[in-house]
Amino acid sequence: MNNWISSDIELKNLCNQLASCPLIALDTEFIRTDTFYPKIALVQLSDGDSIWLIDVLAIEDFIPLKHLLESPQITLIFHACAEDLEVLDHSINIQPTQIFDTQIAAGITNVGYSMGYARLVDQLLDIQLDKQETRSNWLSRPLTERQIEYAKVDVLHLHTLHRLLAQMMDDQARVQWFEEESKELFNVVSQRRNNNNYYTRIRGAWRLNPQSLTTLRHLCCWREELARKNDVPKSRIAKDNVLYDIAFQMPSYKHQLHGINDWHPGHIRRYGDLILKEVKNSLTQTHDATAPKPLLDSQKTVMKKMRKSLAKIAEEQKIPQEFLSNKRELEDILRGFRLGNTQLPKRIVQGWRKSWVEPIIKSELAKANMALESL
C-alpha cells in the first residue's frame, strides 16, 4: 500500500477508500516563520490501522479531500485543532465541522487542562514521544526519515485516545459538556481571524492617553492589513513595542522615528513615511479606543474569593478550575462590573457551567456592590 500520497489520482483513490470510515485521525504540518499566513506542507490521515501522508506541495486538486473532510458522516479526531482548522481553511479551502478534539476531551474528563499531545499520550498510554522535529522545515523535499516518522506519530495514537476519552466522558456523564465545548471551538477559531482589538493586548496600552490609544489601535489595524496583503509576519513591519512607542511619541517627522527603540533603520526607510501618514490619519478618528487597566486592590480581593469558590467546585466535580472560568474572563467581568455592566459571558450563563459558575460570580459581585454602598 502506498502511504505517501503525492498525486491527484492517489489522493482521489485514498479519499474514495476512506469515504465510509466513520472516524479519521488528522493532523497537519506547516510553517509560519517568514509569512503572515501559515504555509501547509503535509496532511496526515489515519483510519486507526493505516497512516497516509499527503504531500500537499505535489497536489493540485483538493476537491476529493474537501468532500472527505467536510462529510457530516465522518468525525475527525484532532488534538488542539484551532491552528489546524485555520491552516486547512486558508491553504486548501477545507472547513471541517464534525470534530473530536482530544485536548478538549482531556479537560472535560479532568485528565489535564490544555494538555499537549505528547504529554497526553504519556499520561494515558505511558508512551514517551520524541517531539524534536516540531520546528523543522516541512516545506523541504524530500522529507527526512525522522520527519516522516514524526508526522506519522502525530496521528498514530489519536484513535486510541479517542476511544479512552469517549468512554471516560460517557462514564462521567459529560458527553453533553463535550458537545457544548466543541461548538464553542468554532467561535474561538473565528475570533482568531478578528484582530480589531489586538491593540488592547499590547503591554502598557492602558497607560496611553485617549489620542495615543486611538493611534495605537489605528496602527495595529494598518499593520495587520499590510501584513496580510504582503503575506509577511507583523513583526517584520514593526513589533508591538515599536507601535506603542510611536503612539506614545506621536511623531510628525521622519527623523523622529530614529529615536524609536528596536526599530531597524531599514524598516524606517521602508515603512517610515507610511507610519507618519497613518499617525496623521488617526488624528481625525473618534477617541473611543479603550484598553483594560490592571485590577484595583478591591477587585483583586473579589477575584481571589471567586477563584477560591470556583476551586472548591472544581475539586468537588473533578474538573480543572480553568475549565469553569479562566483568569482573563474573571478580570473582564470585574472591569465590566466597575463600569456598571453586570452582563456575564454567554458560556457562563448558558450550558453546563451555569448552575455552578453563575451563582458564585453573582454572589461575589453582589457582596462587592453592598460593600461599595456602605462606604
| Largest sheet entry | 6 strands, mixed
Widest sheet: strand order? 1-4-3-2-5-6
Overall strand count: 6
Distance, first to last CA:
77 Å
Which structural category do the helix and sheet elements fall into? alpha/beta
Number of helical regions? 18
Give the H and E element order: EHEEEHEHEHHHHHHHHHHHHHHH
**Unreliable segments (pLDDT under 50, ≥5 consecutive)?**
none
Mean pLDDT: 93
Helix content: 55-70%
Share of residues in strands: 5-15%
Q: Roughly how many Å is the radius of gyration?
A: 24 Å
Shape type: flat
Summarize the structure in short.
The protein is an alpha/beta fold.
Structural description of this entry:
It is a single chain. With about 375 residues, the chain is an alpha/beta fold. Helix content is about 55%, strand content about 10%. The chain contains 18 helices and six strands. The protein has a six-stranded mixed sheet.
